[in-house]
Amino acid sequence: MFNRLTLTLSLALAGTTALLALPAAAQDGPLRIEITDGITEAMPIAIPPFHGDAEVAQQIRKVVADDLTGTGLFREIPADAQVSRPGSFTEAVAYEDWRAVNAQGLVRAEVTRAGDNISVKFRLFDVFAGEPQGDGMQFDARASDWRRAAHKIADQIYTRLTGEQAYFDSRIAFVQETGPKDARIKRIGVMDYDGANILWMTDSSSLVLAPRFSRDGRQIVYTSFDSGFPQLRVLDVASVASRAVTQGTDSMAFAPAFSPDGRWIAYSLERGGNTDIWLMDAATGAQRAVTNGPSIETSPSFSPDGRRIVFESDRSGSPQLYVVGVGGGEPVRISFSDGRYGSPSWSPKGDLIAFTKQVGGRFHIGTMRIDGSQEKTLTESFLDESPTWAPNGRVVMFTRVAAGGNGQPRLHSVDITGRNMRPLSLDFAASDPSWGPLMP
Known about the structure:
mainly beta, Rossmann fold, Neuraminidase, 2 domains, nine-stranded mixed β-sheet, 3 helices, 33 strands
C-alpha cells in the first residue's frame, strides 16, 4: 500500500496529463554524476525493455534513452550486453547482474493502456548501492501524449542523477525557411525540443523573423512584414491567434523579447534613421525608450530578474555588447575582445550571457559572465548565430549556415562546456530558435 500525490501537467497545445508519485525507500548519498568542464566519461546506465503494452512501451523507452544519451552525460548499456532479463516491473532487481556489466544506474518501467489513455510507471535504481534512487512515479496520459510521458521520465532521471533541472519536456519556436537565398519563404513553427510534434503557428504569406517565447510558454512575440514594414505581433500558442502590437509606416519595430514576468516587450525601434531599444507594456501598449543615441542598438535580452537588458550596439564603432537597467541610464560595455559581437541571450540561471561573435572571417557562439569576464568560445563555423538557452542553462541551441550558395540554415545545440555538438534532426531548413520553458 502506498500514498499517492496527484499533480496536473497543463499542456499549452494539447490537453492535460496526470502525475502520481509512488514512494520508495529513502537513501543517503544518492548516485550522482558531477558535471564539470573536466568530465570525460559518460555514466553507464541500463534501460532494458519496458514492460506492458509492447508497441507504446518500446516507443517510450527509446525516447527516454535518446533524451539521456543525447546529453553526452550518459551511455546506454547495449541490450546484447545485459545479463539480467527481468520478467516484470515488480520483480526483484538482480543487482549483481547489472554490476557485472558496469551499469551504475538502472531504469525500469511498465506501460499499460486503456482505450485512449496510458499509464507509465517507472523506477530508477542505484546499482552499486543496491537500492532505489528516489521515488517511483506514475504518469497517466492520453495515448497521443506518449512522447510527453517519455520526456517527463527522462527529466526525472536527469535531475536525480545530475542535481540539475532538466529540459526534455520543453518546446522550441523556430522559423522554417524554404526557397532560394534571395527569396526566402518563412513561417513560424513550434516543436518538441528534439524536433518532434511540429505545429505551425503562421503561414508563409508574409515574411516573419525572430520568434521569442514568453517565460510561461503561452505566447510568442515576433517580427512580421505583413504590412510591408517590420512590425511586432504577439501570438497565442494555444489558439494560434495573433495581434499586431506595433504599426505605422514612419517607423520599424523588430528584434523583440518578453520580460520574465511577461509584462514588458523589449525591442528595437527605428525612427528617423535612428535605432534604439524600447520597452512596451504588453497589456496597454504604452512605450518608452531605454536608450537614446545615434548608434544602432538591437537584440535586447532580459536578465532573469527582469531588471537589466543586454543588447548589441555599435556606439563604440563596431557591434559590441552592453548592459543597461530597464529604467534607462548609461549602458555599460561588457565585450572587449577582438571581433564583432551580436545576438546576446541571457541565461535563465542569470550567470552567463551567450552571444554570436565574428572574428577573422569566422563566426562563433560563445558565453561570458555578465560582467564580460571569462569569455569562452563554444563553436566555430562559416556562420553560427542566434543562440538560445535550454531552461536549465546547460545547453545552447543556435543556427548554423553552411558555406556556399546552397548552404541552408540548420539548428544545432552545444553544451556550455563546448562539447556534445549536435544537429537537430529536421528534414527542412530552420533558423531563429527560441527555447521555451520546461512544461509544467
